[in-house]
Amino acid sequence: xxxxxxxxxxxxxxxxxxxxxxxxxxxxxxxxxxxxxxxxxxxxxxxxxxxxxxxxxxxxxxxxxxxxxxxxxxxxxxxxxxxxxxxxxxxxxxxxxxxxxxxxxxxxxxxxxxxxxxxxxxxxxxxxxxxxxxxxxxxxxxxxxxxxxxxxxxxxxxxxxxxxxxxxxxxxxxxxxxxxxxxxxxxxxxxxxxxxxxxxxxxxxxxxxxxxxxxxxxxxxxxxxxxxxxxxxxxxxxxxxxxxxxxxxxxxxxxxxxxxxxxxxxxxxxxxxxxxxxxxxxxxxxxxxxxxxxxxxxxxxxxxxxxxxxxxxxxxxxxxxxxxxxxxxxxxxxxxxxxxxxxxxxxxxxxxxxxxxxxxxxxxxxxxxxxxxxxxxxxxxxxxxxxxxxxxxxxxxxxxxxxxxxxxxxxxxxxxxxxxxxxxxxxxxxxxxxxxxxxxxxxxxxxxxxxxxxxxxxxxxxxxxxxxxxxxxxxxxxxxxxxxxxxxxxxxxxxxxxxxxxxxxxxxxxxxxxxxxxxxxxxxxxxxxxxxxxxxxxxxxxxxxxxxxxxxxxxxxxxxxxxxxxxxxxxxxxxxxxxxxxxxxxxxxxxxxxxxxxxxxxxxxxxxxxxxxxxxxxxxxxxxxxxxxxxxxxxxxxxxxxxxxxxxxxxxxxxxxxxxxxxxxxxxxxxxxxxxxxxxxxxxxxxx
Length: 688
Description:
Elements: E1 3-4, E2 10-11, E3 24-27, H1 31-43, E4 47-52, H2 60-64, E5 67-70, H3 83-93, E6 97-99, H4 109-117, E7 121-122, H5 127-134, H6 136-145, E8 153-155, H7 163-173, E9 177-181, E10 190-193, H8 199-214, E11 219-223, E12 229-237, E13 243-255, E14 258-264, H9 271-287, E15 292-300, E16 306-312, H10 319-326, H11 330-338, H12 345-348, E17 355-362, E18 364-365, E19 371-372, E20 375-376, E21 379-381, E22 388-392, E23 399-400, E24 407-415, H13 418-430, E25 433-435, H14 441-449, H15 451-454, H16 462-465, H17 468-473, H18 482-501, H19 503-506, E26 520-526, E27 529-538, E28 541-546, E29 549-550, E30 555-560, E31 564-569, E32 572-581, E33 584-589, E34 592-598, E35 613-615, E36 620-625, E37 632-633, E38 638-644, E39 647-652, E40 657-662, E41 669-670, E42 675-680
Parallel strand pairs: 3-4, 3-6, 4-5, 6-7
Antiparallel strand pairs: 1-2, 8-11, 9-10, 9-11, 12-13, 12-15, 13-14, 14-17, 15-16, 17-24, 18-19, 20-23, 21-25, 22-24, 26-27, 26-34, 27-28, 28-29, 28-30, 30-31, 31-32, 32-33, 33-34, 35-42, 36-38, 36-41, 37-40, 38-39, 40-42
């Protein structure tokens, strides 16, 4: 076996390398999970092959692989979802096996079958198992027959069901209910419906999203359990009939039905409940003859009753927390099982050691409703001290593309206790340098320190009770006065750069000026706010104000350089890391992180959009335009539907009025801030 080290790295142990039918492994995925799989494959002595789309040509996982094959194009449908192209790449490179990772083709039975027919080992369960569990309706029937508790639900017949028939089917279940994609997961193709009036629209929207994400728009209705816990059990099965359960993970903290924080074990599960959950998961695995690594997902209601949700026939995003508490490498076990080996004793005899928590670090704007964000990562560095593991496919200079999921990294901490793991993880996030895109880091850090979370009071309604934007504002990065202080630090670093670039000034004391009474000035923009900094430095003594408000009482500048400022304010001394990229300055310290944009001293031409403009809230594809020029609209009326990373976002009218201009049509690719339409609030009667 390989060992998972305290910092999360995978290193070869003294145990045997992988032998048998697998010598070269093609990873049919990208980013973080491709990198993760390769590290274990290399530790086992396997050669590796990467496949990559055009946007991923410079990605870390491509350079890590021994060989790589280009999949021309950008969209998933043209690249990572093209099974025949991936099989062709395997044949081109002489690969013996294909590991699908998660997402894309990982739960595609046709692809698994095609791999077998092409003489390739598919690292996952047999195609028939994938098909049975991928069809959620069939999966529920199998589980019910095996004695696993299931939620009431009904399938929806036909591509365009009759509204009356829909209402009858919903009445069998009762409201609230969920419309769910029959093939797929990850929150895509899912809609919560609280009354009959919402049902038809929710079914149509879920169908479209499911068809886009999974290639099949079939959906079904299922009873919705209000604010349950989401608990899942990791299972492993080999080709010799053995199935074991590796305990539970809790994944209750979610946004848009997608997990953002997972932990093992669950704080709500005692020994008796654990035995029941793992017993049900084992029965599920035996019922379908499971082979490989999989996850049986349940909802757990406040009374302790649990119900089957689905079986994920692949490696889960959150698998590292199970690895951390068991000491097992699940990717290694997948590969050994695929090579025909029986489950080792370590898997059958696994025990829980300590507690592990994982967070998903996303490029997204939390206050804007978790809108995905794209851009260039000028710097991406997340510390991984002992007890912390960072799984990522990004590095300095990577581009966050609109074509794929916006997850930058998984950061995992392990500790003797849950509280220790939470503290360790929060500190690692705070010390990260993430420059170039907005992320959910402040939200994650705040959750890890929030009293309800620390007390184990988590369920799927957690972020409904704790407003994400307000919670983010409590993070250390939003500490009172931190932004103003960071603006002063940015100004001091800017001065140091200018001095270094001017040979005469470089020989003079810091802050020297011909007119000693005149303060130096610079203005920065942070979000929608402007911060006018005025400062004066004489030797080590400094004075500063932001928007006319003096900063502290006594300022001592111990050092100032291009990338470091050592500043003491009223006896509190901190070292600030500074990273300047053109007009952008990033400041990181124990007081948090701030991104500042320098405002040109003499201004610039006004590029304001016309009044009443609808701006694209994110980069994406225009799916539908729901209005025409000249028509009257009311505030909040849906006008344009965008899609980014397989999720739909509706842009609505900002006020009552008339569509005066329309600058988007279905199929257009738009960027953040682009004008999509203009609504004239005066209406046609207001024109002369």
